[in-house]
Amino acid sequence: MNTAPLTRRARAGGGRMTAQRRAVLQALQELGCAPTAEEIHTRARHIRSGLGLVTVYRTLETFAQEGLVQRLFLDDARGRYELMGGRHHHHLVCLSCGTIQSLNRCFLAAAERAARARGFKVTAHRFELFGYCRRCQAPAAR
Q1: 128 forms bridges with which residues in the sheet?
Q2: pLDDT in tens, the chain (142 residues)
Q3: Among 78, 80, 95, 99, which residue's Cα sits nearest to residue 130?
Q4: Cα(44)–Cα(46) distance, rounded to whole angstroms?
C-alpha cells in the first residue's frame, strides 16, 4: 500500500511520520470507509506489532489536527475515521447490524448552490441515510 502522498502531506504540515503513524495511516487506507479506532488498531498491529490503542487514538487526533483524517459519528456512539483528500462520499448505515456502505455520488450540490445564493459560505457537509441493509431485511421479509 502506497502511503507516500499522505506521508508527504503530514510532513508538509509539520508532522513527524514515525513507524507507528505510518502503520495507522496504512491501516486507514486498507480498511476504507469509516473504521473505528479499535478496528484501525487491530489492523495496524498486523503492520506494526506492539502498537498500543492509546497510540492509535493519539495518532488519529494528530492526523485530524493536521487535516489528514476526519472524525465521523454515524449514530452508533462510536467515533469513526476516514482519510481526507480521497473521494468525497456519503454513507448508508444499517440500524440493525451496523454495516456502513459508501454512496459514491454526492447529492447535495444543489443544496450548496442554494446556500451560496443566500450568501452562506459552505465549508463542508455530511449526508447519511439510516435504515436496514438487504441482509437484515431478509428475515423480516419471510
Answers
A1: 91
A2: 455 666 665 555 556 778 999 999 999 999 878 899 999 999 999 999 999 999 999 999 998 888 788 887 776 667 888 887 666 778 888 888 888 888 877 888 889 999 999 999 987 787 888 899 999 997 655 4
A3: 95
A4: 5
Specify the domain boundaries for CATH 3.30.1490.190 within the chain. Answer: 90-133
pTM of the model: 0.67
CATH superfamily name and code, 90-133: Ferric-uptake regulator, C-terminal dimerisarion domain (3.30.1490.190)
CA distance 72 to 137: 25
- CB neighbour class for 43 (10 Å; exposed up to 12, middle 13-18, buried from 19): buried
d(CA 4, CA 82): 17
- Let me know how long the chain is: 142
